[in-house]
Design goal:
glucose-1-phosphate thymidylyltransferase activity, 11 helices, G1P_thy_trans_s, globular, alpha/beta, two-stranded antiparallel ribbon
């Protein structure tokens, strides 16, 4: 079985965040103390994924390379791909067809943040799945803004509808998709929607129709934040700040994840911490080194 690969979709122009995204990609905006993209990157790392494609725009690519490098400092391998125009989420599987080379994948949207007890175990279980796909549904107050899951009386998903005027449930599909190696081939069969995009819901519907899509509900103990508006960006920053200051541990910290997974050494972690020593983030990494005896 091929090793699962990761995709972070960090394209688009961030028009809902204008004017703050006129000069910087939305996914590089800060969510409290770190760039937004650290959070989805951390999710992929928690799932055990080390080969990751970053899809961005030609104008933003250099910023991402400067912010992230090639990933070796975190024990991962990052590759960069260009999305010339934002033509739908499912387009990612066409852009990354050669990168995936028939391997199963996990795609996450670059502006999504996930948090919850047991999240690593859920991610690793989904990543270990054979064939088909797994997506996660989350209860929201305005489901008409999202792709919404319809369930039958037994709780089995029967349809996924993009931004329905009359939502069949309050459960939205989150921006995290574990799909098998047929995703790129299936994406070629999708026709653009009425708004001219290759909808991710259309791709998921193909899996659903063949009976190979698992839809798992995230319960009350989980947080799923989408940071596409000024209000939600501020809410996400406050959420992370509250968690970190209350618990004294970092959320969305690639260095800590890499160290705890054995992908980087304690010496490497100490070196990174030294380079960030003037920030609270760096001091947190330094304290981690002290606790671990480095």
């Amino acid at each position: 079985m091929s090793t699962r690969k990761g995709i972070i979709l960090a394209g688009g122009s961030g028009t809902r965040l204008y004017p703050i995204t006129h000069g910087v990609s939305k996914q590089l905006m800060p969510v409290f103390d770190k760039p937004m993209i650290y959070y989805p990157l951390s999710v992929l790392m928690l799932a055990g994924i080390r080969e990751i494609a970053i899809i961005t725009t030609p104008g933003d690519a250099d910023q991402f390379r400067k912010a992230l490098g090639d990933g070796r400092q975190w024990g991962v391998e990052l590759s960069f791909f260009m999305q010339e125009s934002p033509d739908g989420l499912a387009q990612a599987y066409l852009i990354c067809e050669d990168f995936l080379a028939g391997a199963p994948s996990c795609m996450i949207l670059g502006d999504n943040i996930f948090f919850g007890h047991g999240l690593p175990e859920i991610l690793q279980a989904a990543s270990a799945g054979h064939g088909g796909g797994t997506v996660f549904a989350y209860r929201v107050t305005e489901p008409e803004r999202y792709g919404v899951v319809a369930f039958d009386a037994a709780g089995t998903a029967t349809a996924i509808i993009e931004k329905p005027q009359a939502p069949p449930s309050s459960y939205a599909v989150t921006g995290l998709y574990f799909l098998d190696g047929t995703a790129s081939r299936k994406a070629k069969d999708i026709r653009p929607s009425g708004r001219g995009e290759l909808e991710i819901t259309s791709l998921l519907e193909l899996y659903l129709q063949e009976g190979s899509l698992s839809v798992e509900k995230l319960g009350r103990g989980f947080a799923w934040l989408d940071t596409g508006t000024h209000e939600s960006l501020l809410d996400a920053g406050n959420f992370v700040r509250t968690l970190q200051q209350r618990q004294g541990v970092q959320t969305g910290c690639p260095e800590e994840i890499a160290f705890r997974k054995g992908w980087i050494t304690g010496e490497a972690l100490s070196s990174i911490a030294a380079g960030l020593s003037k920030s609270d983030y760096g001091r947190y990494l330094k304290q981690l080194c002290v606790e671990e005896g480095f």
